[in-house]
Amino acid sequence: MRVLRAILTTYFLLVFLSSTCAKNRARFKSKKNTWRLKLLRKILQQSPGVELLSLRNKHNTHIPNISSGSLSGKDSNGKHVPVIQCDETSAVDLIACPSPNNKGQLFCISEEFLCDKKMDCPNGEDEELVSCMFHQWANTFFNSISKSLTDIKTSVYNLKQSLENAQNYQKGIYTYR
């Protein structure tokens, strides 16, 4: 049953995506797509962990930690890729959006705006699937390393306390903690 549901969900998702990506705007608003969208929403209601995203009207209109970027005169390691420099006086780490807006302005956003389901970069590069998957993986990886280091520090501290207590016990000094 799960396999059939997964196949049907995949099929309707592909049909829905292929029809919504059509260049003809009139076709997008046709009734043909309305039933597909309703069916897709109905299927997704049965799956509690899945969320239907619409990137239309998802631009973040209020970004407090946005900064303008600028092209530096150098390229990235001779690979002819322009380097975008963000404002270095900002208190937060900024990440450059790779493409400019329609006026040719470059932007830098705070890391907290990556993968937040709102397009903060002009072309939505901060919400790309592969980038978000890597961002989530990197956060998980670094969080696990941080937790491991904290656990090691706690273990070493506890071992040190145990050794001190054992030495004090042999000397006849008793401390209660």
TrEMBL record:
<dbReference type="InterPro" id="IPR002172">
    <property type="entry name" value="LDrepeatLR_classA_rpt"/>
</dbReference>
<dbReference type="InterPro" id="IPR036055">
    <property type="entry name" value="LDL_receptor-like_sf"/>
</dbReference>
<keyword id="KW-1015">Disulfide bond</keyword>
<dbReference type="InterPro" id="IPR023415">
    <property type="entry name" value="LDLR_class-A_CS"/>
</dbReference>
<protein>
    <submittedName>
        <fullName>Uncharacterized protein LOC111105399</fullName>
    </submittedName>
</protein>
<feature type="signal peptide">
    <location>
        <begin position="1"/>
        <end position="22"/>
    </location>
</feature>
<dbReference type="GO" id="GO:0030297">
    <property type="term" value="F:transmembrane receptor protein tyrosine kinase activator activity"/>
</dbReference>
<keyword id="KW-0732">Signal</keyword>
<dbReference type="GO" id="GO:0043195">
    <property type="term" value="C:terminal bouton"/>
</dbReference>
<dbReference type="GO" id="GO:0043410">
    <property type="term" value="P:positive regulation of MAPK cascade"/>
</dbReference>
